[in-house]
From TrEMBL:
InterPro entries noted in UniProt: Bact_solute-bd_prot1, SBP
Key word Transport present: yes
Pfam assignment, any one: SBP_bac_1
Transmembrane segment boundaries: none
Domain of life: Bacteria
Keywords carried by this UniProt record: Cell membrane, Lipoprotein, Membrane, Palmitate, Signal, Sugar transport, Transport
Protein name as annotated: Multiple sugar transport system substrate-binding protein
Signal peptide start and end residues: 1-24
Length: 439
């Protein structure tokens, strides 16, 4: 790697660590410093279905929103979109606005692709839970995006089968393990749930709840702590349950998993707020038989949850109208009309707290019609979202997770060794890219 690229990446890491708008040193003048007048035509890359209808509310709104018009360009999601954004940015042709998953933000920031819009959207902070807002700041004074949707994690269970087998909804992970063992003793052909090695996001969320900080910065270096004590605790817990046969070890989102949920072979699922949509398809015959509760805690005195999924709206450094773009991003994710439309047209669970118990969320999901307080409870849980710590190569960590934990789950071997492999691969990749990594 050329020295100049290595130096730029390290300097960006320093900017993140210091929480300053020193990304300008990498050639990205902050949006708060620009003064604009006249019309602005913005382009927004997003994968969210129905977004064009939501944006129409802006384009046809009062005074046509200060002559700011937005055009939606539908894109693929995940790593595919991140790669496309970086490719476009390298040519100086990235769009004004992009939808970005929270874990993708450090990658985009370290490549100088996102602008600091703190002076334009700072007033929106109080509309989001602290742990949610933090994901768009990377723990600094800068703001690189406005939260759009979130995936606070929860515990879902078959209410009827819990009653049949005399099970109590676990409030701690120790109780969760005992519940799994009690069920297995009463009904050997059933499992409380499964450990799925094809869902790195689930494992990351569980580690987040436990207090893990996988990527942090110190001085001019990144520190990678994927195998920290908090994550080791999570890996040991789930690995132990798999090894003793207290839970299943098959992946989710397969025909076999769907059948297990639909027939009651598995009677619980650690998931997120979007689970009702998945259950509607995976287990249609059990509609109205499930209930939702907060995620079990590591200590009875704890009250936190992790995140599984979610995205934000960011402004790129290539935009010539950053203040206008930031204004739209704030409107899209905080305005009640826009949020109602996002829920109706796109089916998202909003990050903004004021929208989580209004509009489309006044009634429970049809699948959970038996739980009238579903969204009230979900909003309370969302407020307890723990801070996260994402880094510039989440994709590498996630790929190794699937390989290493997949093999460990299949052979019921040590999850700790799989975690160490995840750590080693992530550090090696960062060094290969030219990041300074603390040993």
């Amino acid at each position: 790697m050329p020295y100049t690229k290595r130096r730029r990446l390290v300097r960006t890491a320093v900017a993140i660590a210091l929480g300053a708008t020193t990304l300008a040193a990498c050639g990205s003048e902050s949006a708060d410093s620009e003064t604009e007048s006249g019309p602005a035509s913005l382009t927004y890359w997003t994968w969210t279905p129905g977004m064009d209808k939501v944006v129409d509310l802006w384009n046809k709104g009062p005074g046509k929103r200060d002559q700011i018009t937005v055009t939606v360009k539908k894109q693929a999601s995940g790593d595919t979109l991140v790669t496309k954004i970086l490719t476009a940015h390298k040519a100086g042709k990235a769009p004004d606005l992009v939808q970005a998953e929270y874990q993708a933000l450090p990658t985009l920031v370290s490549n100088d692709a996102l602008a600091d819009i703190s002076k334009n959207v700072g007033e929106a902070e109080d509309k989001f839970a602290g742990g949610v807002w933090q994901q768009t700041t990377l723990g600094t004074d800068a703001v690189y995006a406005v939260p759009q949707d979130i995936g606070p994690m929860m515990f879902y269970y078959r209410e009827d089968l819990f009653k049949e087998y005399g099970l109590t909804v676990p409030t701690t992970w120790d109780e969760f393990a005992e519940t799994a063992r009690k069920l297995k003793k009463a009904a050997p052909d059933k499992d409380l749930t499964t450990f799925s090695a094809n869902d790195s996001g689930l494992f990351a969320g569980l580690a987040q709840q436990a207090g893990a900080k996988w990527w942090t910065t110190s001085g001019d270096q990144w520190k990678v702590s994927i195998n920290d004590a908090a994550t080791r605790k999570v890996a040991k817990f789930w690995g132990g349950l798999v090894k003793e046969g207290a839970i299943d070890n098959q992946p989710m989102y397969t025909p076999a998993w769907n059948k297990a949920l639909n027939t009651g072979k598995q009677i619980a699922w650690v998931s997120a707020v979007w689970a009702p949509g998945t259950l509607t398809t995976a287990a249609p015959d059990t509609k109205g038989k499930w209930a939702m509760a907060p995620l079990p805690q590591w200590s009875a005195s704890d009250n936190s949850t992790g995140s599984w999924g979610g995205s934000s709206t960011a402004v790129t450094t290539d935009s010539e109208h950053r203040a206008a773009a930031a204004k739209f991003a704030a409107w899209l994710n905080t305005d009640s009309e826009a949020l109602n439309a996002l829920a109706k047209e796109s089916g998202i669970y909003p990050a903004a707290t004021n929208a989580q118990t209004s509009g489309a969320f006044l009634k429970p999901p049809a699948y959970f019609a038996n739980q009238a307080d579903f969204y009230t409870k979900a909003a309370d849980i969302a407020e307890t979202t723990a801070p996260s710590a994402w880094g510039p190569n989440v994709n590498v960590a996630y790929t190794t997770f699937k390989d290493a934990f997949g093999a460990a789950a299949k052979s019921t071997s040590d999850f700790g060794a799989a975690l160490d492999e995840m750590q080693a691969d992530t550090v090696a990749d960062m060094k290969k890219q030219g990041f300074e990594v603390a040993e």
